[in-house]
């Protein structure tokens, strides 16, 4: 393979990856009052914050989702891989199988076209790995590079996994460590090297297909993927709207090496601060320093799945995940109190 063009893609943007999403508060203002499209056989996911919308089709459910964002790494090929894996994750989080894909591209034409070719090649490698057929896409000129994918998937009606359905006493299992957003911010500030954050970036390129297979083998109560709103933000979407809450054990939550110390020293993106501002009224720190909570608010890009499962299935779920090479951390349990409590 020819040497890839060296361009620092992250220098084109102030907000990297899923940290470039609208803040939760701003998004709520935008969509509040819009007519919901849910009806028999249809669901938009707007009310329950599901990871994909669906429509009854062919004896099952057709899933649709879209994700695109600004560069999270400098290497174009890796950026494409992460962006595609992130888009595919919404389908996996709902127990589905990706079928087709459409590329979404915004790119400055002043840059070498080979850079964009590398981004698309990286994305294509993950779509091929997932078995999703690329049908085409759409591109526009923009000063800030952006790439993502619209995904259509399928799931049998009886196998769909939604982010509502958890019950008090369910255990919460997380499948990837937190802190990628903090590490990427540190990279932009030249506080860490690419080699130092490579394990976290590599994990972001890994499909959540194995986690999907593991949870389907066990039968979860609910699940979602942890992305732009952080662990506490997505846990809130899963639980608080249903009148439930959770107690998290901070010591059980996996965090990438160095991320917690960097955050405690003030190295984190504006997206983390926005997530904290939006969710902190629902969070109770039980004997935990405020700075220790920062990784739990950190925006993740192509993060892991957060799976709720009944207590007598949690050991089997952990075993199924680990047998597929996935991280499996039992990070908390669902409670009847609509509060997100974090204890040491």
From TrEMBL:
EC nos: 2.7.9.3
Sites annotated Important for catalytic activity: 21
GN (gene name): selD
Binding site for ATP: 21, 48-50, 67, 90, 137-139
Cofactor binding: number and manner: Binds 1 Mg(2+) ion per monomer.
Listed InterPro entries: PurM-like_C_dom (IPR010918), PurM-like_C_sf (IPR036676), PurM-like_N (IPR016188), PurM-like_N_sf (IPR036921), SelD_I (IPR023061), SPS/SelD (IPR004536)
Pfam families noted in UniProt: AIRS, AIRS_C
Catalytic activity: hydrogenselenide + ATP + H2O = selenophosphate + AMP + phosphate + 2 H(+)
Gene3D superfamilies: PurM-like C-terminal domain (3.90.650.10), PurM-like, N-terminal domain (3.30.1330.10)
Residues that coordinate or bind Mg(2+): 51, 90, 225
BP GO terms, sorted: selenocysteine biosynthetic process
HAMAP family noted in UniProt: SelD
Function: Synthesizes selenophosphate from selenide and ATP.
Hydrolase listed as a keyword: no
Name by which UniProt lists this protein: Selenide, water dikinase
Lineage: Bacteria, Bacillati, Actinomycetota, Thermoleophilia, Solirubrobacterales
Origin: domain of life: Bacteria
Enzyme class: transferase
Domain PurM-like C-terminal: 167-342
Database matches in NCBIfam families: selD (TIGR00476)
